[in-house]
Amino acid sequence: AQSVTQLGSHVSVSEGALVLLRCNYSSSVPPYLFWYVQYPNQGLQLLLKYTSAATLVKGINGFEAEFKKSETSFHLTKPSAHMSDAAEYFCAVRETGANNLFFGTGTRLTVIP
Amino acid sequence: ETGVTQTPRHLVMGMTNKKSLKCEQHLGHNAMYWYKQSAKKPLELMFVYNFKEQTENNSVPSRFSPECPNSSHLFLHLHTLQPEDSALYLCASSQEETGGTDTQYFGPGTRLTVL
After folding, report:
1. Euclidean distance between CA atoms A49 and A90, whole angstroms
2. How many CA atoms lie within 13 A of B39 on its CB side?
3. What is the largest CA-CA distance in chain B?
């Protein structure tokens, strides 16, 4: 069965610093991978998705993620954090041909002024 | 209205009450989903409807009863819930439920508290 591990339930960075949110998945075949963001009192919004094209995926708000098959990872990065990036981030995986989208437990990002 | 809307945004109910959650999508999608989001747990997929037909029921207790009268509307009927059912219930929709790269669009959720 698919599973997603997000290391660090809470990450704090200073404004302007690099953001790195980790995601590892378990899958016997390369899956489809997604990052979602959830702002307080809102639903989830898609940041970016990997669909087996380019391994480096660019998303909205300056975020990007790199698919590394050898490491079964899909870490999310942003070069310079903004205060508005404070939110909860969810990594999700779907196996090719499967229906379910499996989510990680989320990482809450705090940006310190 | 645009995107996916959910009503009510907050709901407090007793264990003997019957209530319903409503979801509406204005995106022309054909698939709709119910998820449960509890603190410190991954989002749990509850139900999936594709072209109004239920295609997934992830062993959800019968006290949760979904209804999908058309591709734009999805309901979750609640009765005799337990306190552990308190959570954020999220609705989502996608173009179709193909197991591919379809993006799911989420509503803001209904925060449910069961007393």
Report:
1. 12
2. 5
3. 41
CB A70 within 8 A of CB B72: no
The secondary structure of residue B103, as a DSSP letter, is P
pLDDT at B1 > cutoff 60:
no
**pLDDT tens column, A79-112:** 999 999 999 999 998 877 666 788 999 999 999 9
Given the structure tokens 């702002």, which residue do they identify? A39
Model confidence over B46-100: pLDDT tens digits? 999 888 787 777 789 999 999 999 989 999 999 999 999 999 999 999 887 565 6
Residues of B with Cβ-Cβ distance to A97 under 8 angstroms: 99
The residues that bridge with A94 in the sheet, in sequence order, are A32
CA distance A30 to A106: 21
Q: Is B48 on the interface with A (CB under 8 A)?
A: yes
Nearest to B101 among A4, A36, A49 (CB): A49
**Residue from B49, B40, B96, B89 nearest B73 by CA:** B49
The answer to whether A46 contacts B48, with C-beta atoms less than 8 Å apart, is no
